[in-house]
Structures are given as structure tokens and as C-alpha cells.
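re the bet — no i am not wrong, look at it urself. input seq straight from the record:
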Amino acid sequence: MGVLDLFVVALMPVLKVLLVTAVGSFLAMDRLNLLGHDAKQHMNNLVFYVFSPSLIAGNLADTITLSSLATLWFMPVNILLTFIIGSALAWVLIKLTRTPQHLRSLVIGCCAAGNLGNLPLIIIPAVCAETNSPFGDSSTCSTNGKAYASLSMAMGAVYIWSYVYTLMRISAEKRAEETDPKDSMASLNDNGVTSGGLPEIITEPLLAPEDSPSPKDCISQDEIYQTRFDGRTKISFFKKIRQHMTTITEYIDIKKLFAPSTIAVIIGFIIGVASPIRKLIIGDDAPLRVIYAATDLLGEAAIPCITLIIGANLLRGLKRPKVSPVVIIGVIAIRYIALPLIGIGVVKAAHRYGLVGSDALYQFTLMLQYALPPAMNVGTITQLLEAGESECSIILFWTYAVASLSLTLWSTFFMWIVA
């Protein structure tokens, strides 16, 4: 196939997403207000608690089996690499641009978490349905593509709610503590202010006693560790790592870790892998096939609703510009230049060393996971935490605006490489 044919194949699903997104933006305009704040909040709750879990559980139960897991084992590793590499690049961006403290976790979340859910479920089947598709028979391509996209969506949901949510929750709680006037008054009382608001009389001498060590004689613990290279330095380093890990685990919200999407992943895996349960629910002759039919019907509403919410959120991003353009450009550069280039190297290296088979559609899916725009669940997290909603809308607006061109070009290039 020529490059122009591949470009047309890659453009069709992107145009489909853009059209539905434009409808969402139109419905959210002030003149119509059909997707205002309250309506969007209710739809977001429906997607979070009903539609998205139904989509994940139904697709996993239908497409994932014990034999397919043995073939697709590298995909969870690949998605984990996208989070790790994206977080590392985001940290470099934060240092270079001196991003404000309250935006750092948001930038890391946008760079680390790609839209691994509804976009692959739209793009991959649409590419398979094209007559000029480079992936062979459309029915076989659609079946395999649905399995790849379902596993991608499932693993993305687990990583987002276990890593990105915890990171952003820590940042939101620290910011709330810094700005809470009650905490400020409490700290003032602890530092020598009476409950009536007047400072207490200081009875301690202002000058240090003669036997107290001078500042020159005081050596900080960090300086000792820097000047000593014995075993105690290594112990202190690992102790600091353990303290940081303990701090992070204290902030982990078990309820959000087992979000509805995560529970749906577990249920979908159990049904798909356990053959007796699968025979009861999946298949034309299954006794309980009505359960799968109802779940699949609810799951079909997830993609259009999520895409409409994307359009409504993007419209909000134009109204309150509170993010530096340098930060936005940096996020775009990471998601659409650095990550896709690194992804090509990772997938090619994995194929060379036998970690990934020769299936062109599978390799295309793995590469596509590096070129996707930020996950819309990042916006959902900001709404749940009530922190950084407007800033997140701005970043999502510009990244998704650029994604229409970037995703088409990268999809064309990926198909040209693997096919």
C-alpha cells in the first residue's frame, strides 16, 4: 500500500472522533447548555460507574482467554513503560520550565497516562474495517483488534487509578494543607501565639549559651553522608527510599484503587480465563448469555458519552488560560514527539529479542500506545479531587487539538513500518 492510502486509513477514525467531539463542544455552549456543569457531572458519573466498567468487563470476557494472555503478556509491560518514560520526561520538563508546585502532578499525569481506553477501541476497529487496511481480513483483524484494545483499556485503567490518582491526590492534599486557614492558625498557636491572637512572652534568652556549639561547629547530617563513603551512607539512602515509599502508601486510597473500572478488569479476566464460567456467559448457546448481552449494551454507550464529555471539557479550556504556554508546548512535545519515537525503539527491540511476535496489528497497537493524547481520566481525577480542573481543561484542549494531526501522521507511519 502507498503512503497516501495508509494516510486515508489512519485519517478516517480520527475524523470520526473529531466529529463527535465537536458535537460535545456544541452541546456545551452557553446558548444550548445541554452539557453544562451539572449535566456533564451526571454523565461523567454514569460513565465512571456504569458504562466504562460494562465496556471493560464485556470486552475482556469476550476476547481474552488463557491462551491469548500467553501471547499478549508484553502489553501490560509496554503500557507500564509508557507511564515510566512519560513520568521521567515530565520531570525533566518540570525542572526546565520551573512548573509551579501545584501543577507538577498534573503535568506528570498528562505525560504519563495516555488515552488507552476509548481511542484504541475507536481507531483499531475502524482501521480494520477499511478496504485498504494493511492488516488482512477485516473480520480476523476486528476480532484481534478488539482483544488488543480491550486489554489496553483494562491495563490503562489499573495504572491510572493506582499511580496517577495517588500522585495527584498527594499534591491536592498538600496544597489544601498549605492554604487551609485553620491549619495556619494551629501552626501559629504551636509557635508561640495564644488562643486570643497575642504572642506569648518569650522567656528564653536570645543569645545562645556559651557552651552551645557555634554554627560553624554544627555539621548537618547530609554533609556527613556526603563526606563519608562507608556502609552507613548506603543505609541512609535506602532508609530515605523506604520513608518515601511509606509516605506514598499512606496516601493510597484503597477505594479508588479498586475503582469500578479496576473491579471490571478483575471480573472480565475471571470470566474470560475460567473456561467453565466463560461457557455459562459467553457464546450463542450459553445459558446466561443475556448477562453478557445486557453488559455489552451498556458498554456501547461508553465511547460516545466519553467523547461528548471530551468535547465539553475542551470548550472549557478556552475560557480560563492559567497554564504557561511553555508547559503546554512541553507536554505536546513529550506526548507527540518524544514518546512515539521511543515507542518505536521499544517495540522494535522487543520484536528483535522475541518478546513480541510478528503480528503486524499487535505491533501497531503497541506503538500506538505511545502516541495517544492524555487520558480523559486525568480530567475525571481533577473533578473528584476538586483541584486543577481549569488547568487540566486547558492542557487537554491543546493536546487534543494537536492530536487530530499528530495521531493521523503517527498512525500512518506505524502502519508503514509494521506492514
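see?? Residues 3-175+252-315+322-418 form a domain with the Na+/H+ antiporter like fold fold (CATH 1.20.1530.20). told u. also The chain has one domain: 3-175+252-315+322-418. so pay up
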